[in-house]
Amino acid sequence: MAQQTATQEQKYVEAWKTSIAGDSPNVPDSIRTLRESAIARFSELGFPTTRRGNEEWKYTDVRGIASAEYGSLVPSPTNRVVTKTLDQHIMGGSVWNRLVFVDGHWLPELSWLPSLPAEVTVISLAKAMSTEPGLVANDLAQHASYQESGFTALNTAFLQDGALIAVPDNVEIEEPIHLIFLSSGNGDGSVSHPRTLVTLGAHAKATVIESYGGPVDGPYLTNAVSEFVVGPGAHLETFHLQQHGKQANHIGSKQVKLANDSSFVAGAFDFGGTLSRNTLSVALEGAGSSCNLYGLYMTNDSQHVDNQVLVDHAAPHTTSRQLYKGVLNGHSRGVFHGSITVRQVAQKTDALQMDKNLLLSDDAEADTKPALWIYADDVKCGHGATCGKLDETAMFYLRSRGLDEASARRMLIHAFANEILDNVGLTPLRVHLEQFVTSSLRFEEQQ
Amino acid sequence: MLEIRNLTASVGGNQVLNGINLSIQAGTVHAIMGPNGSGKSTLSNVLAGHPQYIVDGGEVLFDGVDLLAMPPEERARAGIFLCFQHPVEVPGVRMDHFMRAGYNAIHKSHDEEELDPIQFDRILKDKAKIVEIDPLLLKRNVNEGFSGGEKKRNEILQMAMLEPKLSILDEPDSGLDVDSLRIVAEGINQLRSPDKAVLLITHYQRILNYVVPDVVNVLINGRIVRSGGKELAAEIEANGYEGQGEALQPSA
Ligand SMILES: Nc1ncnc2c1ncn2[C@@H]1O[C@H](COP(=O)(O)OP(=O)(O)OP(=O)(O)O)[C@@H](O)[C@H]1O
Ligand SMILES: [Mg+2]
Questions:
Q1: What are the mean pLDDT values of chain B's consecutive 10-residue runs (252 residues total)?
Q2: Would you call B90 an interface residue with chain A, using a CB distance cutoff of 8 Å?
Q3: d(CA B226, CA B245)
């Protein structure tokens, strides 16, 4: 068994040696060193397993990812992107700023930055490594530690490209920046490691949307890491839209650091993929900082969605909100692990966590595991979880007024999802999400 | 219009209806009175097709068609409307959206024109005036946070929009102040016509002074034990249900 596991990791180490270790001479030494230590760490950590008594991975088994025979472990840059795939992600017409990546590599011809203040840097990481070494050195891989997570180590080891957004002090960006990460699926299954770094200076303001997708059929793996660094008094709003194809696997890790009086919003929407596992880790490091984290996952068949939301109150007067909702059909499974840590210094913390699941079939399953670690005494902290089926009395009420069963179901499910969707103020995104919810409900009916 | 023959039904494992016989002609108003727990709401839920209420025996014909074989939405489309004793709150669904969806579903099933939101709103506003409902209330979630009286008037509004053939009103008068009572009663009377019928469940004679019934039925222990004219309501209000017991001849 151990030997087999070793081979699984070995595939990646070998691919790294042949393709990454000696790539383009433009890569600065600091990045080379970073990648070397990350691959070494990956060899030690390996892929996470449930059998190591690992609570964190109790409900999510990634053996399928570890053993998958992906044909293309280091996909080379490609221009070939299926227009139809890209079209499913485009929003905001010609006004939003957009960077498109395929297999982690930036595609300049599909990217477009019409509405950015001159002081703002939005650039591919590959380019930034040579043109903005300072920005890269300060923050890249400084927040998402690869020491504890095999997947983050793997992403860091294979770091070649990604998105860098740097907003200087007092600069506010009106229009969103939309990062679209597509997998080509080429070569019997591509593996990509999208990477995002966003830094906001003091009192800066920005909205960043990360979309993930790929071909409807065919296997591929996306292993993404994002770092968000929010300066004093700054405001960062982010969205995560996972619209992968049916056979895709997604591992994602987002690390957020919040300075004094800053605020952070994250909306997470998981619709596609076979297995997706998201870690969102927010450190409220500055006094008066706050975060609002909400999410909606809608699954069917044998889909598996796992959200790990880790909030660390490390300073006084900090506020956090977590509200995640799941709509689970077929024999799919939704996992939510929300943890709140309130450190001793973090007096006057105000923290709330809630997970609500709607089970549409007898075979669907929701696992909710809250964890509260409270070391301060003057705090307000609450959590809750619900899990239930559609309300039969409400169904009858709607049907008694002429709605057929399917429409009544749709109406109630949509109403359940609306509590999350109502947080989305950006109209094009709201419309996009509404369409997605509606079409996935149509799809459920046809089954 | 409606023929109920020897209907027995249970809910939650308890048999509640023990052989109901009732015949309602078009153009008439039937009142049903009966003590708490006698099965009035059970009867109305069975007629509207609530899946938790199990029919154990008997039959119900609506315009000659087997009503019990139809799912609730088909009954609604055939012209049956239940005004709920306890209207259901539905978080996240807007009242006017819901009402339009029901209206259009019913009209579509009759190959009639569906209305867009603007057309629908116009009619809705007019009818809301009749039951004195603030149109802003209809932008809120279905029954969520409505007062008791608002809920009842809102049920009457839905009835007025759908213009059902048979309106089953389960205590539309309970918990209403005098003005609301008058409004609700007027709403019911506006719908009276030779081709429509009303089944009005109540505990009080008061509403029957406004909506004058053709027949008053007394339901005790899941059976209709007595039927008579409107004066029966006054008698019950004066003397209670004592002596109305099952010893009396059940009416056919
Ligand atoms: N879901 C249920 N599960 C079990 N028993 C039920 C259920 N619903 C109703 N019952 C019982 O059935 C009987 C009849 O109830 P029903 O609601 O029909 O009475 P009612 O005549 O409408 O009374 P009221 O005047 O109080 O509205 C009662 O004893 C009630 O407790
Ligand atoms: Mg009742």
A1: 96 94 95 93 96 95 96 97 95 94 95 92 92 91 93 94 96 90 91 94 90 93 92 86 60 42
A2: yes
A3: 9
The contacts of residue B214 (CB under 8 Å, 6+ apart) are B28, B29, B30, B229, B230
**A148-171: per-residue pLDDT in tens?**
999 999 999 999 999 999 999 999
Token reading at B172: 């539309």
Select from A266, A211, A210 the least CA-distant residue to A237.
A266
- What part of A 348-407 touches B (C-beta under 8 Å)? 392-394, 396-405, 407
Q: Write down the pTM of the prediction.
A: 0.89
- B91–A402 C-beta distance less than 8 A: no
pLDDT tens digit sequence for A47-86: 998 766 778 888 999 989 998 889 888 888 776 666 778 8
Averaged pLDDT of chain A: 92
Of A288-302, A309-323, A397-411, B122-136, the one with minimum mean pLDDT is: B122-136
Euclidean distance between CA atoms B63 and B178, whole angstroms: 36
**Domain map (residue ranges) of chain A:** 2-286, 392-447
B102 touches chain A (CB under 8 A): yes
Query: In the β-sheet with A350-359, what is the strand arrangement from edge to edge?
Result: A105-106, A97-102, A177-182, A205-213, A235-242, A263-270, A290-299, A319-328, A350-359, A380-388
Give the max Cα distance, chain B.
Answer: 57
Does ipTM surpass 0.90 in this model? yes
**Cα–Cα distances in angstroms (integers) from residue A265 to residues A207, A225, A230, A353, A425, in the given order:** 9, 17, 11, 14, 12
**Helices B117-130 & B178-191 angle (0-180, nearest 10):** 120
Do residues B9 and B16 make contact, with C-beta atoms less than 8 angstroms apart? yes
- Contact at 8 Å (CB) between B202 and B181? no
Please name the residue ranges forming H helices in A316-426.
392-399, 405-421
Where residue B28 falls (left for φ over 0; alpha for ψ -120 to 50; beta otherwise) is beta
Asked whether the beta carbons of residue A401 and residue B93 sit closer than 8 angstroms, the reply is no
Q: Which domains does chain B have, with CATH numbers?
A: 2-239 (3.40.50.300)
Q: Which residues pair with A309 in a beta bridge?
A: A280, A338
Structure tokens at B66: 């087997």
Could you say which DSSP state residue A377 is in? Answer: S
Helix (H, G, I), strand (E, B) or coil at B99: helix
Question: Which ligand is closest to the CA of B18, given by its number?
Answer: 1
> What pLDDT score does A204 carry?
98
Q: Strand, helix or coil at A82?
A: coil
Query: How far is CA B248 from each of CA B31, B124, B184, B232, B251, rounded to the nearest angstrom?
Result: 19, 46, 33, 14, 9
C-alpha A98/C-alpha A308 separation (Å) is 28
> How far is residue A206's CA from residue A197's CA, in Å, rounded to a whole number?
13
Cα angle A140, A314, A335 (rounded to 5 degrees) comes to 75
Q: Is B174 exposed, middle or buried (0-12, 13-18, 19+ CB in 10 A)?
A: middle
Task: State in Å: Cα B104 to ligand 2 middle.
Answer: 29
State the smallest CA–CA distance between residue A358 and chain B in angstroms.
14
Least CB-CB distance to B76: which of A400, A412, A414? Answer: A400
Contact A331, A361 (CB under 8 A): yes
Whether residue A333 contacts residue A297, with contact meaning beta carbons closer than 8 Å, is answered with no
Question: Is the Cβ of A51 closer than 8 Å to some Cβ of chain B?
Answer: no
Contacts with B48 from chain A: Cβ below 8 Å: 396, 400
